[in-house]
Amino acid sequence: xxxxxxxxxxxxxxxxxxxxxxxxxxxxxxxxxxxxxxRDLAARFGVARATLRQALEQLELEGRLQRRRGxxxxxxxxxxxxxxxxxxxxxxxxxxxxxxxxxxxxxVPPAAVARLLETEADEQTxxxxxxxxxxxxxxxxxxxxxxASAVPELSAIxxxxxxxxxxxxxxxxxxxxxEGQDRAxxxxxxxxxxxxELDRLPGAPVLVVTTRYFSEGRTxxxxxATYRADTCRLTFGDSGxxxxxxxxxxxxxx
Amino acid sequence: xxxxxxxxxxxxxxxxxxxxxxxxxxxxxxxxxxxxxxRDLAARFGVARATLRQALEQLELEGRLQRRRGxxxxxxxxxxxxxxxxxxxxxxxxxxxxxxxxxxxxxVPPAAVARLLETEADEQTxxxxxxxxxxxxxxxxxxxxxxASAVPELSAIxxxxxxxxxxxxxxxxxxxxxEGQDRAxxxxxxxxxxxxELDRLPGAPVLVVTTRYFSEGRTxxxxxATYRADTCRLTFGDSGxxxxxxxxxxxxxx
DNA sequence: GAGTGGTCTAGACCACACG
DNA sequence: GTGTGGTCTAGACCACTCA
Lengths: 254, 254
Fold this sequence. Notes:
homodimer; alpha+beta; six-stranded antiparallel beta sheet; 6 helices; 24% helix; elongated; DNA-binding
């Protein structure tokens, strides 16, 4: 009787909110503009703050919003394309590769890395910390693991740690014969140390790029690079100028 | 007096929980095993259910848990490696490429896709829907856009829609000269239609792979493929057997 | 119908940035 | 200090799966 339309599958409020706000971002806001605070927005839409936050979280995940504690919520610029192509086959640190070395230590790698390196679980590796900056922003933090046995000359390097040692280690790497590399991308959440380098909170979504470097028939190095998922689009090949946002997709006609 | 240790930066409860549960998963649970329900777990750890859920969400995001409404929470198997390398340069649908065609329609593409295709905003395109299945599970849903003007022969195909038309369209594509492709990966959230194909809830995190196909000096096709971020690790090159989980990384000695 | 995860509420307090 | 987003609580109800 009263129900003219049967809401067979009621859409969650936060999903509907996300759509509404997303459309508002397209039409009424420009990049960098600040949104009303969460309490006001929640009141305006007649929902609890937690529900409003669920919608904002999704929009942030899609790279459309940027939220900073103590500051506010702003409209994010389009994601920047970051080249991670494997076409330029070379050791990390070769030439000018947009990474800056931060530190180097000697550590026993985590089990997963040891497995990739095909070393004993407790074998020592050099661990180089690097940071990738693009357009003035940190976009990725990397840990590069090199088995001590792969480059014995490294034991001769003076500095026990620090950026100087990191650069020296990378320099030694170039002397090995490069036989290829291997890459994988998956979703992860930022560890505390990575989050700090990337200016994000721990647990922030990141794209984890794992690279294996081969030399002399074995795995000579493994790199685990965590890219900010909110601000980065990883590009392979010459698609650096590619300009697409997933949210721009719409439902096609049914 | 009473405070022997100053908790300078108290770790969020959900973060600590995530760590504790993560360790428990490694030591006390095996793949496929079901966890206690959320209400019991929350009570056991002495936190609100919302807080417990925040921890579980993170673990699910990292591919360590699988939650299904009405069923329960289970320990997820390691992510499967899905090859998306660009080394095998060819048109989509060529040979046996692990995709199955589902449907084909004639639509005006979303603005972002039109931009990639370098077509007018309202130009018609063929839109092929494909599904990728790996190890018996759907891992990706794709929409492939081909400007009507790029392959005029397509207007002669009989079927107005359906898988038969999809296959016919792909067959026509093979006749064009292949000049290269372009790929980008970014984080997104599943649209309602993709979520349904992937057996996930709308908004679930996905890895969006955008590919441009070039022919005769122009963009002849654009593919937008959304991969389940929880179950997939995208591999480039011959790293299909790569076995790493990000969570396996640990803090290195400071 | 019982049990599960998913959504939602209306509060509270905390950590942080900035003037 | 004030205002922001981040965390947390203790409930409630809903949608789904399965016996």
